[in-house]
Amino acid sequence: VAGDQNQSVMSPRTAARRVECARAVGYDIRLTTGSVSLIGQQLADAVGERRALIVTTPTVNAVVTQPIVSAASQQLRRQLPVLIVAGGEERKTHDSVEAIADAALLSDLDRTAVLVGIGGGVCLDLVTMAASSIRRGLSHIRVPTTLVGLVDAGVGIKGALNFRGRKSYIGCYCPPELVLLNQAFLATLPDRHFRAGLAEIVKMAIIADAELFALLEREPLFTTEHFALRRGQSDTIVWRSVACLLDELESNLFEDLPGERLADFGHTFSPVIESASAFSVLHGEAVAVDIALSTELAAILGILSCDTRDRIRAVLRHLSLPLSSPFLTLPRCLESLDAARRHRRCKLNLIVPAAIGTGFCLVEGTEISDALLRGALAVLAQDLVVR
Amino acid sequence: VAGDQNQSVMSPRTAARRVECARAVGYDIRLTTGSVSLIGQQLADAVGERRALIVTTPTVNAVVTQPIVSAASQQLRRQLPVLIVAGGEERKTHDSVEAIADAALLSDLDRTAVLVGIGGGVCLDLVTMAASSIRRGLSHIRVPTTLVGLVDAGVGIKGALNFRGRKSYIGCYCPPELVLLNQAFLATLPDRHFRAGLAEIVKMAIIADAELFALLEREPLFTTEHFALRRGQSDTIVWRSVACLLDELESNLFEDLPGERLADFGHTFSPVIESASAFSVLHGEAVAVDIALSTELAAILGILSCDTRDRIRAVLRHLSLPLSSPFLTLPRCLESLDAARRHRRCKLNLIVPAAIGTGFCLVEGTEISDALLRGALAVLAQDLVVR
After folding, report:
1. Which of A21, B68, B247, B316 ranks highest by number of CB atoms within 10 Å?
2. Does the interface ipTM go beyond 0.85?
3. B11, B17, B247: best mutation site toward chain A, by most A Cβ within 10 Å?
4. Tens of pLDDT along B31-78?
5. Cα–Cα distance between B56 and B117 in angstroms, integer?
6. CA distances (Å), B363 to each of A49, A112, A372, B350, B373, in order?
7. What distance in Å separates residue A356's CA from the closest CA in chain B?
8. Do B3 and A135 touch (CB under 8 A)?
9. Which of residues 304-333 of A touch B (CB under 8 A)?
10. CA distance A209 to A205
11. Cα torsion angle, A36, A37, A38, A41, sign
12. A183 inside 8 A of chain B by CB
């Protein structure tokens, strides 16, 4: 009798019922060009009458968080409490989530309260995890202050903790109510972290937006100062990248539907680089290396023309991103492909470029031999051009 | 420009986009009358080819879990791994979730794997929390082995941890894929815990099922032996209670829609009794005290007839459940009402009986004075009948 829909059936041997529910989720992403104090006003408008707790990291607190919170508190005529949590991948633990829960208790947050994360990927991951579990779910608002946060980590619905050296082994899907994007926050970002963020933009351009790729090729300089000076241009780059990512994510936000995910491009070999380097290689740097390798594989397999492969490599060089890493050895490549198969429910689903703006999904059955990988790694290590 | 649906808009000052998604969830609940080994076969059918990890507690391991896992492993021709976690409310912590995550790593669980919780409320809470966060969500199956588990904790979608002495301060909504109900598991349940479980059945009977209430009144004896001997009768009691609860929960499974929730009956004053007693008062015992108090308040306010109030008290006595508790003082009652207002988004929504089988929601504005509460507490402490 099992499987009957929405009714209770009782027989001498068994009773069965199926519960069904559709949960609607939605959230807003806004890019503004205003100053930091304008963001404070937007934040105050969003928080309204609710209790709130701001969570931020020491690096951005003085320059970004304090001005925003000050403007918001002034408009709301009450001081919003701020919790400063330490940054760093090694802090993405349940202990850090509990530190936020302690502050939530101290600030007497009720179920209508809102958590506000102002910071980079680590801060936003922790706030998302805390929001997903405190009182079985608080609302949260994200204000990313890194380029990776602006174009990637901040705009999706995932939160994560690391566990026993495994990146994001513990995690959640928890949509924010609002994401406030503003490039004014990038002013404090170290140049290396800024460049790492560009890798996620390159990723989206290659698989989904040829015009964005052309913008990246044409933009003369990639530094935070230059981005700030050419605000119209850089806002367009950021927003196109965000829009492409959301187009990819929206149809399978909770990753519970089958099918390829183009946004996985650059994320097959990168996790092992990060963990093998004990996170000394930044996420975006690892993604750049992954993009270079996946692109090389596509060229060797004849899926991608050599000219296009060269354009992709040239853009990575133009953005001062790495093409190879000593941490990405052949055994780690094989390990990554194996992990991808298991992670992606027994399917390889390796995304490679087929052209600029077009991703291609290598399904199970494509042979990626040791020799193929060894060749690609050697070519990239020396930045050779093989035709 | 904010709020535009599913499109990207770029203007000189702002760009905005809204992401929308509906996530469908569903799960099956099955009550069987077969033996423990039959449950093992059902479990094996459900697990199939997937990797699995069984999580259980020491108290039920030998008598319930081992026979089930043995039957399931035999059918699957592979040994299913078992993790034994300590029981007790004080173990509902992130540390216990991490113990499950460690075992998941050891058993090499991939994203298609399934966690199986075999145990009481604490075990199922931990498994639900682990399933909601390991690898951003594993599937899970619940096999409740307590009466509270069978009729309440096991059939909903919530998981919880306690935090800084606050019951369920950390929690999640995470539907299982399957719940297997079978009264054979109750054989090992201490009598006091069995009776505590009856309180949740009384709760559902009072607010939603007059016929179930009559069954409780007529049933001569409430012990696990008696329940086992009169299996047809007791299965009907359990299934009616489950069906009533699911009717209540299904329309607002994630508790994110506004409105009263009849299943909150008996759960306004009970949390403070549990925490004030350091969990020496069982959840069901606290619920019984709450039912008695809410019923008395309804009688005093003229919502419930005195005859019906007497029938409710008589059933609680018939089931050997408490009507009062030294831990439920007047200040704690007031604190509970205040917490309920905050928990239920600033609305009182105190559920009281209006008749047998009919719940009534006291909305904000109803005055529940100190004198009223003091009177009701005094009457119940002495089990007086006031008309």
Report:
1. B68
2. yes
3. B17
4. 988 778 889 999 999 999 999 999 999 989 998 999 999 999 999 999
5. 6
6. 22, 18, 70, 7, 17
7. 22
8. no
9. none
10. 4
11. positive
12. no
